[in-house]
Amino acid sequence: MCYYKYVRLSFDNGGFMVMKRYIIDFDGVVLDSQAKFDENMKGNTNFCDWNEYLNSIEWREFYRSCNEIDDAFSTLTKLHYLKRLKAILTTIHSFNEGQEKSIILREKGVHVPVVFVLPNQCKSFIYPPEAGVILVDDKEQNCLDYETAGGKALIFKPDYKGNSKKVIKSLKELL
Questions:
Q1: pLDDT of residue 161
Q2: 43 membership: H or E segment, kind and range
C-alpha cells in the first residue's frame, strides 16, 4: 500500500493500482438506530410482530431521536471529499424510511448516492462487489455475504475489544 496526495492506494491481484473506496451501511454505523429498533420492539408489547411495529413508526421523528455514532457525518463528508466514499448502502422497510435517511444525509452535508436494499435482499445482489470497494457494515452476516460474493468487507463494532483487521471501531479509521 502506498500513499499519494492523502489517498490510500492498494494493488489488486493483477498489480494495478486501485484506490480504496467504501460503501457504508447507515443503521448501526452512522446512527444508533439499529439498537433503538431492537430496544423499541423488545420493550413494546402492543405490537404482534416486526412488520406491525415498522408500519407504526413516524420515520422523521424516529431518526431525529437517534444518536450519531462517533462524529459519523463529519467523517463521511471527509471521506467524500477524499473521493473515498462511494455510496451509503442501507436497508429500508418503507419509502418514507428511505426518504428520511436521504434527507438526514443531505442536511448533514453527505452528498453521495444512497442505495436502498429491501429486507431479505443481500447487499451484494443490489451492489455487486468491485475492485477497490469495501463494504462497512455492523452486521457480520452482511459482511460474510459480501465476501462470499467476491468482495471485501469490514465489520463495524465500536465496542470491540479484540484485534482484527476485519473489524473497525470507528469510521475515522477509514481516513
A1: 85
A2: helix 33-43
Q: How many CB atoms lie within 10 A of CB 149?
A: 16
User: What is the per-residue burial (b if ≥16 Cβ within 10 Å, else e) of 70-99?
Assistant: eebbebbbbbeebebbbebbbbbbeeebbe
H or E element in which residue 38 lies: helix 33-43
* pLDDT score for 10: 55
Residues of the chain short of pLDDT 50, as ranges, are 1-7
**Extents of the domains making up the chain:** 23-174
Neighbours of 166 (CB within 10 A): 11
CA 146 from centre of chain: 13
Instruction: Render pLDDT for 3-17 as a digit per residue (tens, 0 to 9).
Output: 444 445 555 555 566
Q: Which CATH architecture is the domain 23-174 placed in?
A: 3-Layer(aba) Sandwich (3.40)
Per-residue pLDDT, 4? 44
Specify the pTM.
0.85
Short-list 112, 51, 48, CA closest to 77: 112
**Beta-carbon neighbour count of residue 32 at 10 Å?**
18
d(CA 90, CA 88): 6
Longest dimension (CA), the chain: 57
